[in-house]
Amino acid sequence: MKRNDFLRGLGLVGAGTMVAGKVATSPGVMSQGPLPPNCALIPSETAGPFPLDLTENQVFFRQDVREDRTGVLLNQKIKIIGLENCLPMPNVRVNIWACDKDGNYSGYGNQTGLTYMRGYQITDANGEVNFTSIFPGWYNGRICHIHFQAYVSSVYAAISQLTYPIAEKNAIYAAYPDLYTKGADPLSFNNDGIFADGYAYQLATLTSNPDTGGYDSYLEVTIQGSGLTALAEAEPETGGQFKLYQNQPNPYIGSTSIPFDMIHSGDAFLEIWTLSGKKITELSKYALNPGRYTFDFDAGSLGIPATNYAYQLRVENVSGVFRQTKIMTRS
User: Are 182 and 104 in contact (CB under 8 A)?
Assistant: First the structure.
């Protein structure tokens, strides 16, 4: 099966884009303060002048977004939780895009055709995604920041931006003058057009990591919805042909079961993928009648490492081919 078909199961091909107006965005109440509040709705921000439609380009489904960019290593973790119950939201697609160390965005100006510092992942059972990047630089008129979008379904996505504590951020620029040749970021939050009216919910942590030689960052993002439920189950790619459930147990150690309902008769195929888009294995069940079924996946027999994986159910019947994807965690 083509990798592009896998991405279609994620809702990434032919779905909504990052461009404002394509999907509904969450309203937010801004609040000034030095620390991110817990379970407070993330402010909605503009996608900015440098978004790209990622849905048709399969290279963006990745954790490592650096490509050839040089800079200080940054491990960026984002956790998505639901406002209604403050619990983590699994199976939410999270897109990020940022400038490189010199303030350039891929895909624009003399960077047209390039794709660095852009990518997306799907939240795991803890509502988390992790990206490997470099610490972004700054450019005139904007304080250092990263754009992100939490894409729940084709009818709802929350678009916002994150930034970092000023002292810690400028300490990185000062420690690596050969990389960050423009020096310290001259703007304060009050001087920035996005964060001047509040930044508390968008201020990510920033701590050095002696094991990697880089930095770790974390931001908890609250969006509309209820945690521990997969709102994307209503996505149209299933065509009303089946219903895919979260694997149980999740996280798991050796094996896990993946239940699904066949609404109409057909063949079912379960594909297991790494988060970098490599297919590991495929299981199949043929000539299924309507009803409840389960795929049992034994990760231990494959000798794969403990990490997050995407599992996709593909159903083929007289009406066509239909797909849906979720994330599971082997601990």
Answer: no
Under 8 Å between Cβ of 242 and 235? no
Domain residue limits at 148: 3-223
Q: What is the pLDDT of residues 168-223, one digit of tens each?
A: 999 999 999 999 999 999 999 999 999 999 999 999 999 999 999 999 999 999 99
With beta carbons less than 8 A apart as the criterion, state whether 235 and 272 touch: no
Asked whether residue 230 is assigned to any structural domain, the reply reads no
Backbone φ and ψ for 313, nearest 5 degrees, come out as -95, 125
64 C-beta neighbours (distance < 10 Å), count:
12
pTM passes above 0.85: no
Q: How many domains does the chain have?
A: 2
**Do 50 and 148 belong together in one domain?**
yes
Euclidean distance between CA atoms 200 and 68, whole angstroms: 32
Count of all residues that appear for the chain in the document: 331
Query: Which of 183, 202, 223 is the last residue before a domain boundary?
Result: 223
Contacts of 309-312 with CB under 8 Å at 24 or more apart are 309/272, 309/273, 309/274, 309/275, 309/280, 310/6, 310/10, 310/122, 310/272, 310/273, 310/274, 310/275, 311/247, 311/258, 311/270, 311/271, 311/272, 311/273, 312/6, 312/9, 312/10, 312/270, 312/271, 312/273
Q: How would you label 100-128 residue by residue, b for 16+ Cβ within 10 Å and e otherwise?
A: bbbebbbbeeebeebbbbbbbbbbbbbbb
Residue 43 per-residue DSSP state = P
Contacts of residue 235, defined as CB under 8 A and 6 or more positions apart, other chains included, come to 11, 153, 154, 324
Q: pLDDT tens-digit profile of 101-151?
A: 999 999 888 998 899 999 988 888 889 999 999 999 999 999 999 999 998
